[in-house]
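Dear H.,

Thanks for agreeing to be a second pair of eyes. The structure we're designing against is below in token form, covering all 496 positions.
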């Protein structure tokens, strides 16, 4: 294993993301040997912490990980340094530069820098601007910017943000995180599609009837109301995670698995999104908000009763929609998507329903054969299920539907790298495959802005009872064309 070298400057080093995700991910890279001696992390935030105190924070964030030994944790934490920093104060960048240069020499790093923005998005442009004006970029080694979602809240703000970071960093230096792209089963979609002769030639409108993507959450808004009120399900889940899943499910096969080629086919896919007029968007995308219900003997709050939510909030907690692609491969094939909070149970899954065989010679009454269905379980369980038709046992040739089911076992899943670990290693390696590029965001924001506009033009906010899979309108989206959601859980499990 080759050790990666970098000074990582983490803006927002005292934050929730840093503690819950980034320190554990960096620690795993350290345990696996991707990071060894030649790295240093500078955590910045407003509070006046000492290096020692910061190292205690980092230690606390990783100490309970299964692989952690006291010796390793101590060695890991010794690479962390703290710099009290106000992002708007130019003088602080000068201090930061001096510290980064000192650590670069001390750890013999050779000028590699990663700037990780784990802060509120309104600061991203300011920080990028100062990185340039105060000359933090190194002439030798690499300079890479890692930027968290949300990337804007509509097309105009995303473009403004992109322009501001692009003034300092080139596109090939920008790593926009969508942590879904770091998930094992999301990357696994590509393996499944392009690694199987029984699937690859069938992956088109000729053989596939529809694709369904569900990102169901069982939890409510929890303590994130402040953020969620100004976001809603469309911005929080559809514009990013669902669009990325959709792209991996539908893009053309790249000639090679290099970042440039993958992004080329992905960009082409996003350009082929069938754009709705606002009227069409209102028909094809529905929203709703959860209302109080008795679930498993317990009264669950409605969204408008949650702490921090306005009594007349118009923020949607559910979206379902039908998306179309204008490509020869997918012309007319509906891609249904659905996401929401307080649904029946937590699950992210994809169902690909194939067209039934044209002439079911086994049926006496002309009944069509059941369609083949492929389900990809992204989380919480990870695996695949293929439904195929077999012969019913006995003196008959009636078909019966059988399932070929595979799930990764818990022990293997626990050993596999977590999304942030995978993505941070990609940043260190300089592999942009699993990050989003501006061309995709440009298209996806324009696409969702029309939906938002259509919704904003009405005062209606449909509702659904907590613990259900959304409003009737989301069922009607499919039943109107004789289809149905494949994932219809009945057993309610509201705790994740
Ligand atoms: P947080 O509020 O917990 O942390 C924000 C950090 O920024 C803190 O370290 C704070 O000290 C620092 N900060 C704030 N204002 C500052 C200023 N003026 N100068 C210097 N430092 C300042 O936020 P978070 O939950 O860690 O989220 C960080 C980013 O990651 C956000 O963009 C968020 O949307 C994104 N994100 C977070 C999560 C998560 O699980 N927490 C998941 C996905 C994306």
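And this is the sequence the design step returned. I haven't edited it by hand at all.
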């Amino acid at each position: 294993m080759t050790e990666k070298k970098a000074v990582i400057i983490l803006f927002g080093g005292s934050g929730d993301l840093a503690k819950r995700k980034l320190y554990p991910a960096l620690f795993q890279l350290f345990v696996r040997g991707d990071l060894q001696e030649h790295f240093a992390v500078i955590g910045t935030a407003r509070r006046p912490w000492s290096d020692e105190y910061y190292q205690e924070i980092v230690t606390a964030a990783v100490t309970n990980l299964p692989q952690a030994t006291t010796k390793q944790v101590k060695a890991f934490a010794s690479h962390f340094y703290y710099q009290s920093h106000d992002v708007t104060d130019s003088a602080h960048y000068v201090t930061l530069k001096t510290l980064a240069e000192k650590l670069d020499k001390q750890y013999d790093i050779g000028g590699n820098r990663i700037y990780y923005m784990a802060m509120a998005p309104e600061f991203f442009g300011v920080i990028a601007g100062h990185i340039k004006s105060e000359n933090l970029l190194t002439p030798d080694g690499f300079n890479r910017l890692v930027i968290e979602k949300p990337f804007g809240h509509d097309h105009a703000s995303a473009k403004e943000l992109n322009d501001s970071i692009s003034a300092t960093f080139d596109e090939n230096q920008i790593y926009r995180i969508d942590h879904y792209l770091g998930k094992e089963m999301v990357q696994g979609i590509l393996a499944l599609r392009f690694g199987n002769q029984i699937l690859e030639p069938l992956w088109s409108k000729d053989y596939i009837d529809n694709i369904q993507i569900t990102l169901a959450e069982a939890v409510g808004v929890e303590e994130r109301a402040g953020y969620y009120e100004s976001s809603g399900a469309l911005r929080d889940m559809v514009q990013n995670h669902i669009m990325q899943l959709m792209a991996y499910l539908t893009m053309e096969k790249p000639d090679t698995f290099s970042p440039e080629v993958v992004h080329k086919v992905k960009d082409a896919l996003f350009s082929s999104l069938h754009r709705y007029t606002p009227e069409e968007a209102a028909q094809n995308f529905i929203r709703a908000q959860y209302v109080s219900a008795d679930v498993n003997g317990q009264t669950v709050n409605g969204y408008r009763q949650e702490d921090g939510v306005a009594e007349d909030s118009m923020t949607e907690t559910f979206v379902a929609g039908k998306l179309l692609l204008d490509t020869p491969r997918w012309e007319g094939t509906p891609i249904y998507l659905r996401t929401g909070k307080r649904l029946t149970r937590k699950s992210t899954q994809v169902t690909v329903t194939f067209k039934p065989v044209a002439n079911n010679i086994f049926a006496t009454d002309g009944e069509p054969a059941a369609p083949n269905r492929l389900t990809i379980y992204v989380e919480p369980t990870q695996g695949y299920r293929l439904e195929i038709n077999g012969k019913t046992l006995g003196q008959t040739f009636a078909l019966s539907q059988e399932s070929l089911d595979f799930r990764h076992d818990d022990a293997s899943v626990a050993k596999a790298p977590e999304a942030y670990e995978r993505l941070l290693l990609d940043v260190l390696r300089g592999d942009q495959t699993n990050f989003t590029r501006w061309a995709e965001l440009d298209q996806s924001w324009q696409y969702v802005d029309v939906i938002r506009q259509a919704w904003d033009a009405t005062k209606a906010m449909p509702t659904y009872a907590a613990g259900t899979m959304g409003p009737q309108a989301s069922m009607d989206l499919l039943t109107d064309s004789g289809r149905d959601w494949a994932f219809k859980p009945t057993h309610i499990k509201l705790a994740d």
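Two observations from my side: The mean pLDDT is 95. Residues 12-18, 20, 45-46, 85-87, 118-121, 148-150 surround nicotinamide-adenine-dinucleotide (CB under 6 Å).

Warmly,
E.
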